[in-house]
Amino acid sequence: MLCWGNASYGQLGLGGIDEEIVIEPRKCEFFHGKKVCDVGCGLKHTVFLLDDGTVYTCGCNDLGQLGHEKPRKKPEHVVALDAQIIVAVSGGESHTLALNDKGQIFSWGLGSDGQLGLNNFEECVRVPRNIKCLSDVQIAQVACGYRHSHALSKGGQVFSWGQNQFGQLGLGMHGSSISTPQIIQSLQGIPFAQLSAGGAHSFAITLSGAVFGWGRNKFGQLGLNDTNDRWFPALLKSLRSQRVIYVSCGEDHTAALTKEGGVFTFGAGGYGQLGHNSTNHEINPRKVFELMGNIVTQISCGRQHTLAFTPSSGKMYSFGLGGNGQLGTRSTCNRKSPAPVKGPFVASAAPIESGKKWHHVLNCSFLSWYIFTSAVAILLHSNPDHFNTSSKFSGVDMNMARLLFHRKVLRKYKPTTSVWLQIAASLEKNLLPRLTNSPPDIESLRLYLTLPECPLFSDQNNYVTITIPFAKSIIMLKEAALKVLGNWWSTFEGMLFQRLVELYKEVVVYLLRMHKLGIPSIEENNIISVCKSLLTNVLLLQVSERAGHIIEYDKFYIHELDDLVDIRNDYITWFQRQMFPSVILCPQGPDSLVTLCRYPFVFDAQAKTTLLQTDAVLQMQMAVDQAQMQNLSSLFMPVESVNPCLILIVRRDNIVGDTMEVLRKSKNVDYKKPLKVIFVAEEAVDAGGVRKEFFLLIMKELMDPKYGMFRYYEESRLIWFSNKTFEEFDLFNLIGIICGLAIYNLTIVELQFPVALYKKLLKKKPTLDDLKELTPDVGRSLQALLDYPEDDLEETFCLNFTITEENYGATEVFELIPNGENISVNKSNRQEFVNAYVDYVFNTSVAPLFEYFYAGFHKVCGGKVLELFQPNELQAMVIGNTSYDWAELEKSTEYKGEYWKDHPTIKLFWEVFHSLPLQKKKQFLLFLTGSDRIPILGMKSLKLVIQPTGGGEHYLPVAHTCFNLLDLPKYTSTETLREKLLHAIDHNQGFNLA
């Protein structure tokens, strides 16, 4: 133990020496053979803590600050604490705090400003007393200012009490001293590592190195670029990225130590205590440049001086006021820049971690090595990524967080134990209610990442009390905080992100089940709770999409909705609110009427098909009602009668011309009517099958190259609008109407457009990914252009493919080169070039053509229902999909008459069918259903029916396309069945009965 400085009150513990000041470090023989693990220095007294938990004090005792009545010149045992195992001590101007191993605080000394926390303002308390109002809180650290005190609980709460003249308590109150510990509410939810208190200012450091300061700021000691006092904690933004691990406060100045070993000082500098070779005050943190090149591992501020230790060189430096020898330089002169302290310090090959600590404060200085056991030690031994916390990076290892909850908590305690109940109660009553919508620092947002990993959140018993209130706290966050949280979510791995989505999907399903059962306790808050849970997943969906789909869109589907909710009624309610937003449709008010259609991402293909059918039925009914009203009026008034259906009478050899003629004469309201198709000279009545073939034939005709309306891409086998067509734009309008009618009448059509078409129909912008789908070679080349390292690019470079008029030359985009040459692009605008090229292909070059197509489509399908679909879902509604599951087709097929699944002919049929090549199987679907693609609901939705037919084996199978019904003669041999089936499917057009 080495000590130096003012010894006039015996505060150095050197016994009855003659000197009043000690100008260089001297051994304190009293502690020879003993291990000191903590030291606290007051203005005129000192408190020592030994490794066995005993406490010694020496120095001035005028106000009882020693806790005993023994001699003052050498350290004396504080007997009143013998029953305690003390683990930390701290000294203020004339008061002392001690912390025991159970997290309890004892205080003694001057109490006139309430700094003892004993609920009184006694002038002098000479025997240590327990601060009983904190007996239910486990304290991890204490810190004394001149006349105020702080404590940090193991739960992360910061308490303060004592003098508050300058706001040093951080409570927002002005002036009045407080004699009982109070929680600093504005710091709730932030994980703190260390507290520090000065003359009348205070600091707290978080695990990730964020620094908060409050209190007196006359000299800029808070480092906030001004001299205004702070009544609430304020974040030092200038130090946010410096990875601060320790802060020490003097009377009116402050020093901060970074993880890299740098030192920043600010505040009063009149004695040189900032180390900047001047006596200027500094209102912003400023690095001590004369210490650069050295890795500082410990710092400490005295009243008006500062110390810094560099173990690699074995040197300790001091600067500031030296009149009482406190600089240890064998001189009483002040020092404006770091000077070596005289002493037997030994260099260490490996730097000592900053968690090891020595003390010197106020007018005397002490040095004591020990392993720091407070929250700082936790910080130093935790993941180093903590210090990298930023708006883009959380600094949290989520896998470790999950292991902590599941291995430590689950293994140690069972869900039924009182410990789990206590944790749940604490979350419900303490933590969640204190979450603020505007956290003081981004570090507190890390709680939003880690808490959902707690098993309590996925327990149905806690949904209403914990999981849903937590969802509310998320959606109530202000925009800046929510943006940070979104950035952090976007870095999640798919599985981790999916777990969070699944959590709130399960909550919604649970609530809807309870609602369906009419559980009273749930019923009251059900609507609002469902909304909160869904809004949480809305946020996650937005994050996933911005990050390029962390998980696929269908992972947000809630497949149970069809069983739990009347989807048709939900859509009708939603539709009414969209049409009449000012009308209150619910007696409890408009906000209580929550419809799931507000959250379309939860609907799977089956649910959305139901929605589309419901919308079509609604609009068809309205169109039919309107026609019937007009026909009724025609009986009494000169009004033309109208057909309640849209009738298309067409010839096979002039299907496009006949269709255009009818549609041009039709009004918009006619498109909303049920569609009936009649082929001239054919007997079939349209119950769906005729309509299917109509769409198949007309789309095949319109796609014919003779019209030149579309360009075919060999590589992708997709088509896109041709900007070189000579056809009238009305044809594009017709195709739009045909596509709309197909969706509206729930019929799939053959239309080989990329997803970009459906994005544009839903007013979403195509991207480079869409170009890759349409023309993979060009897309890959453009992606390679974007990915090429900046440093390896020449100022101007050529793309590795040729863009010509034929493949939408970008010469019209930038006018960079003549048509047909390799494109040269300046590296500074490559992203701009790629964006413009994509825009040219999908938008600019085909704008008038698509406008006609869009207008035609929306004449039929315009409306709110389309807002519920994603582009790929709309594509599946138009063209179906190719997710063939032939086993499912067999499994879902029904039989009539003599046939059943094990009938010999049926067994022969499936044996032959499964042996057919893919192309022939697709032809069979075309023969039987009118399309070779699968509806969005999958194979089972086809509902094939096979029935026996009279006659012999020389008859062919007959398809009733309207009903997906197959007449199958009773074949007895595989060869005959194969021959007749292939002959039938190879001649599949027309509806004349065989």
UniProtKB/TrEMBL annotation:
<dbReference type="Pfam" id="PF25390">
    <property type="entry name" value="WD40_RLD"/>
</dbReference>
<keyword id="KW-0963">Cytoplasm</keyword>
<dbReference type="GO" id="GO:0005737">
    <property type="term" value="C:cytoplasm"/>
</dbReference>
<feature type="domain" description="HECT">
    <location>
        <begin position="667"/>
        <end position="994"/>
    </location>
</feature>
<feature type="repeat" description="RCC1">
    <location>
        <begin position="314"/>
        <end position="365"/>
    </location>
</feature>
<keyword id="KW-0833">Ubl conjugation pathway</keyword>
<feature type="active site" description="Glycyl thioester intermediate">
    <location>
        <position position="962"/>
    </location>
</feature>
<dbReference type="InterPro" id="IPR058923">
    <property type="entry name" value="RCC1-like_dom"/>
</dbReference>
<dbReference type="GO" id="GO:0004842">
    <property type="term" value="F:ubiquitin-protein transferase activity"/>
</dbReference>
<feature type="repeat" description="RCC1">
    <location>
        <begin position="103"/>
        <end position="155"/>
    </location>
</feature>
<feature type="repeat" description="RCC1">
    <location>
        <begin position="53"/>
        <end position="102"/>
    </location>
</feature>
<feature type="repeat" description="RCC1">
    <location>
        <begin position="261"/>
        <end position="312"/>
    </location>
</feature>
<feature type="repeat" description="RCC1">
    <location>
        <begin position="1"/>
        <end position="52"/>
    </location>
</feature>
<dbReference type="InterPro" id="IPR000408">
    <property type="entry name" value="Reg_chr_condens"/>
</dbReference>
<protein>
    <submittedName>
        <fullName>HECT and RLD domain containing E3 ubiquitin protein ligase 4</fullName>
    </submittedName>
</protein>
<feature type="repeat" description="RCC1">
    <location>
        <begin position="209"/>
        <end position="260"/>
    </location>
</feature>
<dbReference type="Pfam" id="PF00632">
    <property type="entry name" value="HECT"/>
</dbReference>
<keyword id="KW-0677">Repeat</keyword>
<dbReference type="InterPro" id="IPR000569">
    <property type="entry name" value="HECT_dom"/>
</dbReference>
<dbReference type="InterPro" id="IPR051709">
    <property type="entry name" value="Ub-ligase/GTPase-reg"/>
</dbReference>
<dbReference type="InterPro" id="IPR035983">
    <property type="entry name" value="Hect_E3_ubiquitin_ligase"/>
</dbReference>
<dbReference type="InterPro" id="IPR009091">
    <property type="entry name" value="RCC1/BLIP-II"/>
</dbReference>
<feature type="repeat" description="RCC1">
    <location>
        <begin position="156"/>
        <end position="208"/>
    </location>
</feature>
<keyword id="KW-0808">Transferase</keyword>
